[in-house]
Here is the input.
Amino acid sequence: MSWVQVHDLAPQRFMCSCAGRSPGHCRAAGPLAPASGGVRSRKGSRSFESLLGSAQQGFTLIELLVALAIFSLLAGAGVLLLRGSVDTQRTVAAHLDALGDVQRGLAVLESDLAQATMRISRTQAGTAAPAFFGRRAQSAEPLMQFVRGGWANPAGQRHPSIQKVEYWWREGRIERVGYPAVDGAAPPEASTLFADVTALALRYRAPDGAWQEVWAPSTPERMPAAVELTITRRGEPPFTLRLLVGPSGLPAEETLENGGGDGNGA
Here is the structure.
């Protein structure tokens, strides 16, 4: 009599536990028990081989921790590098913006002074104002007031070719006020040329070469030969501007005082 039992989809051997006994006793005992010794040895070998393969193909905890530490260092270095790049770009952009503001303000100021003309103007109250008036750095009154020529008219509006101009220093800003008319006009809204100005100094060069802190001539037509401005902006070193006054930079009275008769100041 043969006994067959299916276990784990593979045929197994069975041993009769009633060896040496009567056949009736074996029938009463029921199915034959499998031989456990061989099955246990095979199961143990397969389990050991599976554990060994997993250890050879996976990572240990120490290896995983080392990999995470290296990844964290690389990610931190990348973040620091990116942040440094962004901060540098912001600093460069701010510096370029500040430099552009200075260049635009310098261009406007230089154009106004270079085209200053000997024209007596009148205030809104009707009082006469000299052709050029310059004061020390303060905020109660205009720093400079004069009339310039060459007023552009790209929009084709009705206005003269000359314009009265004032420069102010208020609340840390150097502002320009361009009047719509030379005589009796109300001041319009000012435009900012230089911002964040913490210190300002002005000097005016007379035709004889002497520098003065205030330009208040005895004759209203008298104009300085040049203007010097020393501007200090927040967080930046001071810079000095020396700008010529008048179309040629040398007014007519300086040419006469120097004894030149050829009209070019020589």
